[in-house]
Design brief:
Strand order of the largest sheet: 3-4-2-1-16-15
Distance between the termini: 10 Å
Number of strands: 16
Order of helices and strands: EHEHEEEEEEEHEHEHEEEEE
Oligomer: single chain
Length: about 260
């Protein structure tokens, strides 16, 4: 069994000062942990925190500005190959992808772009960049998939269906629930990528992974499910479990998890 976890920490330097950092130090934690929105370069992190419990870490850092974006992977397993960022130069520099190749699958940890500030009603500054990034990612994932299956986790900044956010009708013109954003996840599913949480839990309601700090939405569970584990359908038979760890605090997101019935390498 291989266990995965993913968490948008909204600043790793902030989380490591909270009691919630104990989540990283759980000896029963996952074999592969992906975190997003580190808001830090790896040299800004103490050595002990870069390799908790002996896990090796791999980082993608924002080059466009410090304290922005960034992802990291902590793993007990040794990858065959490591790639930072997408191959397409148009979508490099923000530290949004770490890609590890393992013997049985390709693994991607991603902090996918949000739509940015609203310019006019329903038109958002970065939605074109966001959609281009998604297409570039998916094209590359499909190339890798010719060799072996895909596991991708992270903050997608999209709620896929109405069931995936508390107030869908109030958000049809808001980025994260725009028609073109949701259509991208439709495309992923059509190409054979499985939303592992829905595969395991079906139509479970009130299952969210992000809540606005501004409105104290977590207290009322007014949230969005925008963090995912997708696997290509070749791995569908080995999905053993998928879950949301909504009792873990420390960020405006909570962690999520996945277990695949595959042997440890």
């Amino acid at each position: 069994m291989i266990r995965f976890q993913s968490w948008n920490v909204n600043g790793i330097r902030a989380v490591r000062k909270k009691e919630d950092w104990a989540w990283f130090e759980n000896p029963n934690g996952a074999d592969i942990i992906g975190i997003q929105e580190t808001k830090a370069h790896e040299e800004q992190i103490p050595e002990a925190d870069k390799n908790p419990l002996g896990r090796k870490s791999y980082w993608a850092n924002s080059l466009v500005k410090k304290g922005y974006s960034g992802v990291a992977v902590f793993t007990h397993l040794n990858p065959l190959n490591v790639e930072i960022e997408l191959p397409d130069a148009a979508y490099q520099g923000e530290g949004r992808i770490v890609h590890l190749e393992f013997p049985r699958f390709h693994y991607f940890n991603g902090y996918f772009p949000n739509g940015g500030e609203e310019l006019t009603k329903g038109v958002f500054k970065r939605v074109p960049y966001k959609m281009g990034f998604f297409e570039s990612f998916l094209n590359y994932a499909e190339e890798c998939r010719r060799q072996k299956p895909i596991v991708v986790c992270g903050d997608f900044n999209i709620a896929h269906k109405e069931i995936d956010l508390a107030r869908p009708k109030d958000n049809i013109y808001n980025t994260g629930f725009l028609e073109e954003e949701r259509a991208f996840l439709d495309k992923m599913v059509a190409l054979g990528y499985v939303d592992t949480f829905r595969h395991v839990h079906g139509g479970a309601e009130g299952a969210y992974t992000w809540w606005s700090y501004k409105t104290k939405a977590r207290d009322r569970n007014i949230g969005w499910r925008i963090d995912y584990f997708f696997v290509s359908e070749e791995l569908k038979p080995v999905i053993a479990d998928a879950w949301i760890e909504d009792t873990v605090y420390g960020s405006d997101h909570c962690p999520i998890g996945l277990a695949l019935d595959l042997p440890l390498e």
